[in-house]
Amino acid sequence: HLYSLSQCLKIRLRWTGIALSDRQHCSIFGLWATALSVTNTTRFDLPVGLQSQLTTMSEELNDDFDVAESGVSNVYPAQCSSLRKNGYVVIKSRPCKIVEMSTSKTGKHGHAKVHLVGIDLFSGKKYEDICPSTHNMDVPVVKRADYQLVDISADNFLSLMLESGDIREDIKIPDGDLGSEIRQKFDAGEDILCTVLCAMGSEMVIATKPNSNK
């Protein structure tokens, strides 16, 4: 009769205003069934004190699922042995370009291990990691897009035109030589495109080129 009990719990939770997904419902059903056995009751009302506990669990589970699902499209898994130099990998939760990669010999009771050295795509910081060759690592989804430079604000934000004609003003001019180059070309009246790199929710201008889409 577990299925019937499960459905009754789902209906009862809806009556009390607690909204759960199917996955959350399965997680909480075990707790409710345990509570029923402890209180020796066959009623379908929620045991005393359990409703507030379920509400708290629902909120926590919603937070967990939101975090897990929000980053799904930003990375994908790949076996460590399939990674290559100049490719991409996530190290210490940061999107990196692989600049060094070496594999140790297989031990008697273990797997070969891969030593990875990566450079953060946005900060330039160096990261290292060691992973068994048969294990999976996250690979960031890296995208590039070209936008026409329209203006540079007083607080160093770029006005970039999309193909649709809309303007975005949420990317700052990069530091260093590239930033100086962008400002110099803009002040000289050159019509240029800014190449924007996007990975794991971060964006940055990485290059410029003449606008040939006139």
UniProtKB/TrEMBL annotation:
Domain (Translation initiation factor 5A C-terminal): residue spans on this chain: 141-209
InterPro entries, per database record: IF5A-like, IF5A-like_N, IF5A_C, NA-bd_OB-fold, Rib_uL2_dom2, Trans_elong_IF5A_hypusine_site, Translation_prot_SH3-like_sf
Please name one Pfam family that this protein belongs to: eIF-5a
Q: Which Gene3D superfamilies match?
A: 2.30.30.30, Nucleic acid-binding proteins
Q: GO CC annotations? A: cytoplasm
Enumerate the GO terms in the molecular function aspect: ribosome binding; RNA binding; translation elongation factor activity; translation initiation factor activity
Q: Which UniProt keywords apply?
A: Cytoplasm, Elongation factor, Hypusine, Initiation factor, Protein biosynthesis, RNA-binding
GO BP, one annotated term: positive regulation of translational elongation
Compartments reported by the entry: Cytoplasm
Query: What NCBIfam families does this protein's entry cite?
Result: eIF_5A (TIGR00037)
What family does the database annotate? Belongs to the eIF-5A family.
Q: Quote the protein name from its UniProt record.
A: Eukaryotic translation initiation factor 5A
